[in-house]
Amino acid sequence: MSLHKTLLVTGGAGFIGSNFVLAAVAAGQTVVNLDALTYAGNLGNLASIAADPRHIFVHGNINDGELVAKLLAEHRPSAVVHFAAESHVDRSIAGPEAFLKTNIDGTFTMLRCARAFYESLAGQEKEQFRFLHVSTDEVYGTLTPEDPAFHEKTPYAPNSPYAASKASSDMLVRAWVHTYKLPALITNCSNNYGPFQFPEKLIPLMILNALAGKPLPVYGDGQQVRDWLYVADHCSAIATVLESGRVGETYNVGGGNQRANLAVVHTVCALLDELRPDSQFVPHSKLITYVQDRPGHDRRYAIDARKIEGELGWHAAESFETGMRKTVEWYLDNPEWLKDVTSGAYQQWVSKNYADRSSEASTDFAVAAAVEAGTK
């Protein structure tokens, strides 16, 4: 049984946040879910608990200090789990301002309010309170093929506006621990994938485009390596750190699945060939199209997860193969969710991001047609 009966979760309608909220409610916890419902926030992710009294949704912004303080005072959570962030590197290159406002200013607001609430507590309530900040491996920069994986003492070297904004937020959390004694923890995770991921990210974009017979845009030579983490495993790691992690510590969370982007795309294509053998686009790998690499593209990420495994006994349950199969099957089985998220705004974003990268590739990367293709 969890020590934390009530949680305040920020960004709980997003990809990772919604998976965490679903798992927490299923485990019997009450979740106060604060989300601004920007482009990647989707209440459809939480449809299965829409009527559950243990899920209290609040439409609001983490920069609204009055609202955050009110929620803390009213619901008295024993933990804050801070997911809310702008998280897409390409978007941060095109418009970094939103990333600084949400990831830095928003984290500052959350810390300021959490500190005031924590200092109002006494006894067991104060002893149990935790603030868990969810971050990324991108704060560490990039690795060569020969470099050891990122560990908790790896120096920060962010290379994109997104990574820099998350590194800044990590430093704020660290400062609030050491200066104000806020009982906070940080997790830095590798690339997540799985259900409810907004289709601007690699894996869902490849699934949807392949189903619709659209080009599968691969940056550069496609040999950028990432350590892939199934989202349910990430959520279980966060729950473990929240329950058992040492205050002030950072825990790296990785799936132990290093794969080049091109290999990931080929895996998606092979699974679609198997699961949709009657598709006119088989083999789906023929849709792969190389496009101009993005600026400052980090070559390799890899996570050394020995600390969380050794200290807290957490281990990823899914291999890359099992997690990818579950992911592709989920997208094929949820056409209504896909229809809802493949809006005009999303299509405009994909077109803008890829339109100038290759004269050979079609600029029509809109994936709305994938919904129908996926049901046949």
Structure, explained:
The structure is a single chain. The protein is of the alpha/beta class. The chain is 43% helix and 15% strand. It contains 14 helices and twelve strands. The protein has helices at residues 15-26, 65-75, 89-94, 97-120, 123-128, 161-180, 202-212, 231-244, 261-275, 306-312, 320-333, 335-341, 344-354, 370-373; strands spanning 6-10, 30-35, 55-59, 79-82, 130-136, 184-189, 191-193, 216-219, 225-230, 250-253, 258-260, 288-291. The chain has a seven-stranded parallel beta sheet, with helices on both faces. Helix 6 links the parallel strand 5 (130-136) and strand 6. Helix 2 packs parallel to helix 4 (97-120) and helix 4 (97-120) packs parallel to helix 6. The chain is globular, with a radius of gyration of 20 Å. The protein starts with 5 loop residues before the first strand and ends with a helix. Residues 359-376 have low confidence and may be disordered.
Fraction of residues in H or I helices: 40-55%
How many alpha or pi helices? 14
Largest sheet: 7 strands, parallel
Strand fraction equals: 15-25%
What is the gyration radius calculated from CA atoms? 20 Å
**How are strands sequenced across the largest beta sheet?**
3-2-1-4-5-6-10
Which ranges are low-confidence, i.e. pLDDT below 50, for 5 or more consecutive residues?
359-376
> Could you report the average pLDDT, rounded to the nearest whole number?
90
Strands, count: 12
Q: What is the H/E order?
A: EHEEHEHHHEHEEHEEHEEHEHHHHH
* Coarse morphology: globular
- Please state the structural category: alpha/beta
Amino-to-carboxy terminus distance? 44 Å
